[in-house]
Every structure is written in C-alpha cells, then in structure tokens.
Amino acid sequence: MRVSFSAAAALLSALQPLLASALATTAVTLAIPAQPHLPNPHALPPSTHATLSTLYATYSAPLSAANTFVFRNVTPGSYLADVHCATHAFAPLRVDVVASSAPEKLGMLSVQAWETYRGNDWDNKGEEAKEMALGGTAGSSVATATAALPVRCLAPKQYFMERSSFSVMSILKNPMILLAMVSMGIFFLMPKMVENMDPEMRAEFEEQQKNNPMASLMGGGGQQAANPMGNFDMAAFLAGSSNKKDEGGSAAAAPAGKGKK
Amino acid sequence: MHLPLSALSVLLALPAAVRAVFQDEVGHIDYHYELLGVPQRETTFFHRPRRQDKASLLYTLSDLGVLGAVNPSTSSVVWRQLLQGNITNGAGYLRAGEDATWVASAMGSSTQAWDAPTGRNLWSLDFDGRAKDLEIMELTESDHKDVLALYQEEGATVARRIHGTQGHVIWEFRAVNDDIPLQVSTNVEKVFVVSLHGSLLSYSLKVTVLDTLTGKRLDEINIGTKGEVQKPEDVMFVGANSAAPIVAWTDNAMTKLKVNVLGHKNKQEFPLVADTRSIEIHAPHHIQSQPHFLVQSRTKTANRADVFHVDLKTNAVTKAYDFPLLDGESAFSTSTAGTNVYFTRVTPDEVIVASSLSHGILGRWPLKGNDVNSGALHAVSEVIKKSENNYAVRSAVVTDTDDWVMIRNGEVAWTRPEGLTGAVAATWAEIPESEDLAKTLEAEAHSNPLEAYIHRVKRHVDDLQHLPSWLESIPVRLLSSILGSEGSAKDSTTLTKDSFGLNKLVVLVTKRGKMYGLDAGHQGRIVWSKSASETPSTLPWDVKSIHADDVKGLITVRGADGEYIIVKSDTGKTVDTMGPGLWPPVQSVAVVDSAAGPWLLPVGIDGKIAEVPLAYAPKQTVVVRAGNALKGITFQPQGEQAVEVPAWVFSPSGKQKIVHIATRSAHDPIASVGRVLGDRSVLYKYLNPNTLVVAAIDEGSSTMTHYLLDTVSGEVLTSSAHRGVDPNKDISCAISENWFACSFFGQYTVRDSDTQSVKGYQLSITDLYESDISNDRGPLGEALGDDANFSPVDPIEEPTGPVIPAAVSKTFMLSGPIKSLAVTQTRQGITSRQLLAFASDAHSITGIPRMVIDPRRVVGRDPTPAELEEGLSKYTALVDLDPRFMITHERDVIGVKEIIAAPANLESTSLIFAYGLDIFGTQMTPSLPFDILGKGFNKVTLIGTVLALTAGVMALGPMVRKKQINMRWYSS
C-alpha cells in the first residue's frame, strides 16, 4: 500500500511538469548591465537582439530601450540564450525554464540561468547568473518582469586587421640597416680617429689593421681571397667604377698589398 | 575534458592565416546596398522623433517586413528592424502619434512599439490570431498616447487598447462571430471597430462603437452595401484618425463613391469620373486636423482628384473642389501643420501643393531631371510654410520602377534603389566583348588569308588614331598609379573588361518582376534596370532558373508557369520573351550538353520531361526531383525523338523528407588530385564530378541523414545520420572538390558517453578520399592500372565491392546559426577554399577557412610534427564565428537568401555576391592576395627608397673613389 502510494506520488510529480509544460508559459528577461567591457549599454546598436533556442523552438527578442530582452510565452525547457550584437561579443547562457518546486508557487514556472560553454557538455554549467532587480527605470518596457538575468560582455568585436604602416623608425630598427649604419660610422669616423692619433699609436694600429679582417671591408679587399665573395669590393661596386670589374681581384688585392710594404 | 574554454583562448589558438578585411579596403573591394524594401502606401510617413527637435525622419514598413527610419536629407538608414526575422510578403501596420517619441507596428501575431530616434524596442506583445489593424489613440485620459490593435482570431474579433509606453493591455473587446475585422478607428469620444458581416459576395459593413475608457460595446451600426462589398479589398478606405473618421466604398461598376461617417447610419453618394479603374483616398491622420479628405480616381490613362469636407456638426460630406484630370500617373499625399491640411500632387512634370480649404495652388515646382519620369505610385510629403506665400515641400515618391525618390521643391534629392530587395535569383555574367570587334574578327577568320591580312593591317593603321590620346594619358595614369588613386581616375560609366577579371556583371531578378544589371567592378553600380512585366504571370514572380550565356552575352530567366525572357546582359534589352501559360509549368531547368550544343532543358512538374528532338537529347544523366525522391534520367533515341528512360530512383528511407540538395557549381576546378601529408606521402582525393549531397530529415525522430549520391549510378556513396536535429531551423549544405558540409541545429547525447549532451548550431564536414591509406588509390587504382576508363555504372572487373570513398567526418559547434552555404571559387582552384555562409543572427556573411573546419584535425591529442606540417591542429569542438571571418565586417547585412561566387582572372581572388534583401558584394582572397599588389604595397615608399639609395650611392661614390685613390698613393 505504502509502495503504491509513493509510486502514485512519483507519478504525480512526474506528471506535474508535463501538465505545466502543456499549459504554462512564462516571460524570460535578459538584461545587459553596464560592465567593464561595456560601460554604456545604451550605445549598443538597435540591431542587437537575443535568441533562446532549443530543439523545435526558437524565441527572438530585440533590444529594448532599457537594455533588456523580453521573451514572452516561453514554454518549459532548457534553452541556449545568445545575444547577437554587431559591436560586442557576449557570453552564452543556459536558461532553464522549469515548473517551480517551491510550494507557494505551485504550477508556476521558474527560470534559472548559468553560463554555458559552447562545444562542451550541456550539463557543464558555469557560474549561475543570478537575477538582478531591474533598476527603477520608469516607463520601462517590462510590464510584468521585475528581475532580469544579466548577460556578461566578453569583449568588443574587432572586425579589421591592422595594416602595418610605413614609418621611418621601423626601417631604422631593421638589423640590416643597423649593421649598415655601424659600418658607415666606422667608415667615416675611423680615418679621422687615425689622423688624430700620435704617430706611434698610428703605426701600431696600422700594423694591427693588416691582420684585422675588417681591413678587407675598409680597404677594399683583403689578402685572403679565399672565396669569390671575399673578393667582392662593395665600396668600389657602389662607386660604380666600371673598370674595377675587369681588374677584379688583382686591383682589390693591390692596395692591401701595398699597405703591407 | 570539461575545460571551461573561454571564447578568447580559442580565438588565439586559431591559425594565423585568417585574413580579415583591412579598414582601408572597405568601400573599395566591397559594396553594400542597405535596403528596406519598397515602402507601402499606408505604412510610410514623415514623423518628428523628438518633440523638441524640428527634424523629421522618414519611417516605413516595407513590403518585405522591414521597419526602418531613413534620414530624409541624406537617404541613409538611421535604423531598421526585420520584424518577423525573415522576409515576409506585404501587409503589416505602422503608425505614429503626433509628437510621440515612438512608433507602433503590428505584423503577424505581434504588436510592437519602437523608440523613434534609436530603433530600440519599447515593448512587444504577442497575441493569438493575426493583426488586422493598428491605430494610435491621440487623446487619452492620461498624458500618454495609447495603441489600439485589432486582431482576427479563429471565430472572433478582438480589439485591444494597449498602454503606449508600458505595453500592457488596458482593455480587451472580444466579439465572438465570423465577421472579418477590417479596421479600428477612433475619434475623440469613441472607438469604432469596422468589420464585414455576412457571407462571401454579400457583406454588409458593421461598425461596433466602443467606449474609450472601458472597451464596452456602446452601439452597433449595420450599413447595408447591397452586395457592393464582396471582399475586404472592396472597402476603399476606413478611418483616418481625424475628428470624423469615414468609411468609403464604391459600387461594382466604379461609377459612384459611397461615404459614411463612422458612428452614423446615413451614407452619401458621389459620382466618379467615367472609366475609373481604381480609387484611392487620402486623409490626414491627426486628430486636430481639419476633417477633409481627397479622393483620387485613376482611369486607364489619366487621373484626377476631388477634395471633400466633412461638417462636424451635421456629419454631412460636401465636395469642396477638385484637381483637374491629368494624363499619366500622379501621386497624391497629405501633410498637416497644426489644423491645416495640405495636399501635394506629384505629376510627371511638376509638384503642386494646395490647401485642403480651397483650390488655390500654394506652390508649383517643375520637375527637373528625368529620374521620376517613370510613374509615381504613391508618395508622402512634408509641406513647410516659410512665410505667408512661400512654401517648401519634400516628397518621398515610390515609382513604378520600385525606386524611392526624394523630390525637394521639384529637384530630385536622392534615389534609393529599393527594388533591388526581394531578389529571387541572380547570376554572374561576363561583360560581352565589343560587338564590332567580335564581328570584324569573325569576318577575318572567314575570308581568304591575303584579304584577311590586308584587312587586319588596315584595321591596325586605323587604330593608330587612338595613339596620341593614349600617349597623352600615360603621364596621368602613371601619376595616379603611383599615388594609388586608380579607382577615381577610371571612367565608371562605361562597361569595360579589365585584365584582372574583377569587372563582371551580376544580373538580378526580383520577385516584383524587375531585372537589374549590376557592375561588380564598380561598387555594384546599377548598369541597367528593367521591368520584365510582360513576362511574369503572378506576383511574386516564381523564378525557377537564371542562366548566363557568356559567349552570346545573353541572360535567360525562366519562371514557374513556363514563361521566359531573354535579355542582353550588358544593356538589359529584351531579345526574346514568352508569356506564361504557353509552355507547360516548369519545376526546374537544367543546362545539358547535346549534339546541338548546350541548352536549357526545362523540367516539368514532378520531374517530367517531354520528348526532345534527337539532336537535342542530353548526353548526361539528368537528375530531377519527383516529390520526395530523386530520379536519374537518360535519353534514348526513338525515331526522330529522344525519350526519357529512368536510370535510377533515390528515395530516402522511412519517413525522411528531403530538405536540402546541394550540387557542385559548374566551375569547380581541382588543382591537385591528392593531399600531401607530412611524411610526403599522398592521400588521394575522391574526385567524382557526378556527385550531389541530399539532406533528408525524419521529423518524427528528428534524425537528419545526409547522403552523397553518385548522379550517374544513383548509388549512395556515403551517408551519415545526426540525431536530435531540429527540422524547423535552417538546414543547408554545400559541396565542392572532395568535401561537403552541412549546417543544422542539433541537441543530442554524445554517443560515446551517456552523460554528456550537446546543444547548439553545428556544422558537419566530410572529406572524401580514395582510400584511407596514403599512397593508395584503393580499388580505383587497380582499375586505373588496367585501363583508364572507369565508369560508375560499369563497375571494375572482379569487384571487391562498389567503389566507396573513404570518408573522414567531423562535426563542429558554431557560435550561431548559419545558412545559405557556398564555397569560394577561383580560376584554377589552387587557392585554398573558404566556406561562405550567412550568419543570420549576426547579420553578417562569414567566410570560414577550410583549414579551421578540416575533418582531419586530430582529436584528443596534440598533432605530431608531421601533422603540423600538413597544417592540422588539435580538434576543438567549437568553431567561433570570429568577427574577423566576417567578410561583411561591420556592415549590417540582413535577409540574405543566397550567396554566389565567381572566379576572377586572378587566381587569388574570388568574387562574392549575396542577395535576398540587402545586396552585398566583395572580392575575397582566401590565400592572401599573392598575385596582385594590394593597398599594402606603398609605391611612394618604394620609389622613395630607391631614390634615397641612389642619392646615397651618388654621395658615397666620389668619397669611396677618393679614399681608394688616396689609399694607393699615400700608403706606399
């Protein structure tokens, strides 16, 4: 007897949401509060709208003047709530509309919402979105609802790629240019420094220079012409002296050879 | 597993190859017509959205269900809302109260109020039944205005008074009867519900008088019409929110106009001009305006109007004066200022403003410009009294070319091509070669070689006359190309082919029976527009096919009733046309190859094809849809004719209904037959041009199956089923190369675990390979080894089973619904492809790179170096519709029905065109613009760098020379 009673009770409680689902509908209100990524929700474009979707049902609501979305006549179910906005991205919500369990609200529907993660298990709920009281916005669009589920703004949307613009600094930062500048500096400054040295130092420096690989760069060619590129006289080439080409290596080597004497 | 990935981290994980639009390309590579649809007569008006502000906006609810506000001075859209979420066919109501900061709309089952300056929603209410009328109560007991909404339910007429700013129902009046509710109207004291009472063809008018405060029925007045009102459309006019609202109708022969002042029994009759074909009544909508109204009668060729006054005390209607009979169309409109009522007449030659009081003309402006020479259908006007005898008027006129034209004091201020909305079919067309040159070349080809040679030399000598002007143009062109102002230098009024193939035509057909030619190379400029009015039988025009013949430069459009029209693609000139009903109804049209060349084969209802002459017998198998099945049809000769022989029939199993069929585009080149893996082995693609994808859904069990069919043998090559698919939401597929994709809304438990379930919009994508092992061609390989002739209907020798491709499939979750799938096309198919789709909730068109939705992405582990080299990343269930994927970027594009792509001559570039409600077109480079210098290539910088280097060399040269000489002389 006892068993059958509890079974009947279970049956009743199972039927209840079914009955409710057949009859009752409720209103679901989402709201966009001001938040760090979105200090002024009143600036959102009027094309902003929200949808509640589940199998066989879709509800859509436009953005109201009070920054809310009001869905009317929502039947019980578990809905995916999305806010579609051209300027900002919003976190999706899971909105459950179920028959209220509280005895005083028997037969009424209650609404609960959590953040949800796309591409994850539907039961993997995030933080619950607690209903917030709608501020006393007089003449608000919401005639019946007094509380709304807040929607979190993720970030402003970025549609465009930045085009790298031309700037002198970006050229100067280029390592090739830096190298060229340094060698240019040496090219100009070294002779002056050498001139200012006292004769002994100068002699010593020149002796050093003969063994220095930099000599090939500065003097136009070095004595070790191991590879053909080593022979290449950059400065002479830039100077555009055409006969240099014919003389090639010998001419380049000559000054260095002379320098030895 | 349950990693709460935020959307941003997924965005970061995406490959860097995603190419978004650059800000400076906006308006150069893309174009967008932000449209509303053709404004409807009753739902268009000027309205001041802010009480303190003098400026007014132009509000309209268009024939496609778009509610929008347009700035009357610039023609730009201030805001717009697609009321029902998709395109609707006419109807809808829109009203605004004088000085109210909101407008109210009613459409379908919902009544809504919108903030007039911003377009935000104030309130939305949904009721049972359908909205039949909407009216504003200007004077209420409190300080706000209220809304009266009239609904028709099954067997009941319901009128409601709704609080104007808060949106709750104040009272509801319900009359349970079978009357047809017509309109609701109000004067200061009472609310009138006008409905048709009786049975079809003999209605009488019933006016129910309601109390404004409680909605209680006060009185009911029946007005006999003696069978003159046979259907709701016969009642010409009801209401006007003036002090004396009226109802008017005519007798069947249109000889007399009958007018009744609402709330009274007597009706008055007025004679109409002979041969009247239609009448229209214009009256002010404001309660303080004088109770005057205007009756416009149109005959076949001319039109006139009579102005009537209603005496508020006696309720007598008297004729005051008339506007003379004028040839052609003209549009009348009403505007009010305080109690004054002005009537504006826009004729083909001039704009006339008169007061409602007397026939004296207050202002007359001759029309300048030829833009409005097409007939004005209806208009709204705003008359401003500048001084005692000086008036200014601006009228927004809807013309019979579906344009919306603003005429300001006789001058055309702007034109909005609203006719481009409601497009039902579009195609790309090449700009035809200049006809003379083509003819000359043809002549040369057919004459004897010597003559041809002489002719050609002559032609070239003649061409020399263009040389000086060409030489003259060089410096200008050089300068403009350096400064990057090429676009502006071009002459954009002529149609010319360009070497990059970016200049192409798009020919568009709308459901209103209009055709447009757009120049895709010049921001979608309208090259020509015409009405195919002689061809479509019914509106909306049910277009079954549009086909461009680029060789002849002709466009063929075929309608459902067998009608067709052939026009020239560059001018829109009609070449040939056939009215409806002369040919059998058409279900679809197929381009087929025959001995006599390619032609358009019309397919009748249920896939029936009549006999065709032998020379025109299609060589291919023609796939037709017959109800819920697909049929493959071949043709066999029988005497002089070829008769259809069914080759195969495919019908989806069980209770499945075919919801979408995706076919390959005609241009689908394949650059590589295989896919090179990381270890340099090759996975051969299954490349069968004769395949199509069918998506079928069983609504009972909500299981969707998509089949890949071989169209030659009718064999199902692969199929996959998805459970928990919503049949009410968009299901769309696309097929290209060796893959196909389908989008749908799914909600189901994941197969390998009972506890996990998913819900959301999804995209499934399948790759087809000849074998799932690399360097292997499967059974095909053996067949190809023996003899290269493989046929799907004549399977390979010693079959080990039918040649079934190896399918790799993945399903991704999307962050929103997508529909109208399409694939980018390039000339040779070397460029990687992108899946194009209309993100209907984001109001954007998205281009998802193939790489992101690659079915070979590895699941559950990180990719190995070899897989990384192949370009595979780890599978994540979510594919976020990144804003940078959006080829429409910040533009708000709504109501896209289809996206079509075409290749340019540049391999990197694909031309995209989307139509439906808005028109959007762009150029896409899915693999970056590798064969063209874009805007990022700064010619000034390049030249500057070269000059700087030259200067450096010039400066350094002497120094180096001096140094070298010095070195030789001094060092020794």
Automatic annotation (TrEMBL), chain A:
Please list the residue ranges annotated as the ER membrane protein complex subunit 7 beta-sandwich domain: 40-179
Q: Which terms are listed as keywords in the entry?
A: Membrane, Signal, Transmembrane, Transmembrane helix
* Signal sequence, start to end: 1-20
Compartments reported by the entry: Membrane
Spans through the membrane: 176-194
Annotated membrane topology is: Single-pass membrane protein
Q: Which InterPro entries match?
A: Beta_sandwich_EMC7, EMC7
Stated name of the protein = ER membrane protein complex subunit 7
Q: Which organism is it from?
A: Apiospora saccharicola
| The organism's taxonomic lineage, starting at the top | Eukaryota, Fungi, Dikarya, Ascomycota, Pezizomycotina
From TrEMBL, chain B:
Instruction: Identify the stretch annotated as signal peptide in this record.
Output: 1-20
Key words of the record: Endoplasmic reticulum, Glycoprotein, Membrane, Signal, Transmembrane, Transmembrane helix
The residues covered by the EMC1 first beta-propeller domain are: 20-418
Coiled-coil annotation reads none
Main location group = endoplasmic reticulum
Q: State a single Pfam family of this protein.
A: EMC1_C
Q: Which residues form the ER membrane protein complex subunit 1 C-terminal domain?
A: 736-969
Lipid bilayer topology: Single-pass type I membrane protein
Q: Does the keyword Transmembrane helix apply?
A: yes
Specify the superkingdom. Eukaryota
Locations listed in the record:
Endoplasmic reticulum membrane
TM spans (from-to):
940-960
Its quaternary structure?
Component of the ER membrane protein complex (EMC).
To which protein family does this belong?
Belongs to the EMC1 family.
Q: What is this protein called?
A: ER membrane protein complex subunit 1
Q: What is the lineage of its organism?
A: Eukaryota, Fungi, Dikarya, Ascomycota, Pezizomycotina
